[in-house]
Amino acid sequence: MVSVLRPNYIAAAPWPTKNASLPHPVIPHSGIMPPMENAFIGAGLACLIGAIVGGGLKAFGVEVPILASRARQILLATLGALLLAFGLGVIPHPKPAAPPTPGYIITGVASPESIGPGQGTQIIVTVLTDQSTAVSGVVIVSIRDSTGGKFLDTGNNIVRGMPDDHAQFRTVWAPSQGTAPLTRTIQHTLQAEITRDGVTIGLKQITVTVHP
Predict the structure, then answer these.
(1) 62 pairs with which residues across the strands?
(2) Residues 135-185: pLDDT tens digits?
(3) For labelling alongside 2, which of 11, 15, 54, 114 has CA 20 to 30 A away?
(4) Distance CA 47, CA 60 (A)
(5) Does an H or E element contain 57, and which?
(6) Which pTM does this prediction carry?
(7) What are the tens digits of pLDDT across the range 50-59?
(8) What's phi and psi for 97, nearest 5 deg?
(9) 87 in helix, strand or coil?
(10) Side-chain half-sphere CA neighbours of 196 within 13 A
């Protein structure tokens, strides 16, 4: 007996008709295409299919009513093409602007700016945002003197601390006292570095004049 092998036919899916409803596809988010772009693609496909069949269907979460004229079909097809272009990146869609980088207002002064031998002066460093508010985070003010002087808080030429509730860091500096009398005016320059959460946000020079 000869057996006849019958081919296995797969029935073709019918073309969507008016008032048909297509299941909403599950488009996995792979990390390459954001969900917003998936929405553009789904809406674009729904518009194109609706334009082809003349409307009366619901696909990809978009319901397209019956289109009574060819002009509306053309407009719907154009809209679908634009949505697809947005979703596929052919037409770049606007992206949200990055938040502005905060600015800072940093001042450093000596009060008084001119002193005599053996006298001290108060060093004041103020750290504010460009909105004149206190800077958030961990703010550290470091001041170094490499011109012959010391800070009374530490007894050496380096001092470090945090601003107070008024966004100011204060310390007292005095020139080193030599054995010989001072015979000329000397300018001392102090270097201040301000960091926020370990990142430098500003540098400041503070000048103190010492008169004989």
Answers:
(1) 59
(2) 988 999 999 998 888 999 999 999 999 999 999 999 999 988 765 677 889
(3) 11
(4) 10
(5) strand 57-59
(6) 0.54
(7) 766 666 666 6
(8) -70, 145
(9) helix
(10) 15
